Amino acid sequence: SNPLHRQVHQDMEQPLCHYYIASSHNTYLSGDQLLSQSRADMYARVLQAGCRCVEVDCWDGPDGEPVVHHGYTLTSKILFRDVAETINKYAFVKNEFPVILSIENHCSIQQQKKIAQYLKEIFGDKLDLSSVSTGDPRQLPSPQDLKGKILVKV
């Protein structure tokens, strides 16, 4: 094989909206979307496979602990905290480009506050808390600017 093919360079300095982003839908499911198991390790699997946007469906859980599952189905429930810890552990194992958490929020204000607390505690400095004006997408930061960062999309 041609050694030059191993030196592919992509310009990662353009605004984020200029890129196709490898995304996962119902990331937590190990099988079908009606009956299967929800598993935190599915996040480890897709992140290591190069996925940069993962879906987290959040619902009110028992004892004030938000859970992740596919609503109105028989899929099992996992703790949001476990999902966040798994994402934190595996987000940047294969590459440093940003990871987007696509959060589908079905939680009460009380459990939303708990989610915010876990995001800050678990991700720490990796959590990108800068606000972005949605007016002009050309003003979005680049993947290069966001290396090592976790972005939250709700």
Features:
5-stranded mixed β-sheet, alpha/beta, TIM Barrel, 154 residues, 22% helix
Write the layout of secondary structure elements.
Layout: H1 41-48, E1 53-59, E2 67-68, E3 78-79, H2 80-90, E4 99-105, H3 109-123, E5 150-153
Parallel strand pairs: 1-4, 4-5
Antiparallel strand pairs: 1-2, 2-3
What's the average pLDDT? 90
* Strand proportion: 5-15%
Number of continuous helical runs: 3
- The CATH top-level class label: Alpha Beta
CATH fold assignment = TIM Barrel
What percent of residues adopt helix (DSSP H or I)?
A: 10-25%
Shape from CA axes? Answer: globular
Task: Report the CATH superfamily.
Answer: Phosphatidylinositol (PI) phosphodiesterase
Number of spatially distinct domains: 1
Structural class: alpha/beta
End-to-end span in angstroms?
Answer: 44 Å
| C-alpha Rg (nearest Å) | 17 Å
CATH architecture: Alpha-Beta Barrel
Query: What is the β-strand count?
Result: 5
Characterize the biggest β-sheet.
5 strands, mixed
Strands of the largest sheet, in order across it? Answer: 3-2-1-4-5
Low-confidence stretches: none
Instruction: Report the order of strands and helices.
Output: HEEEHEHE
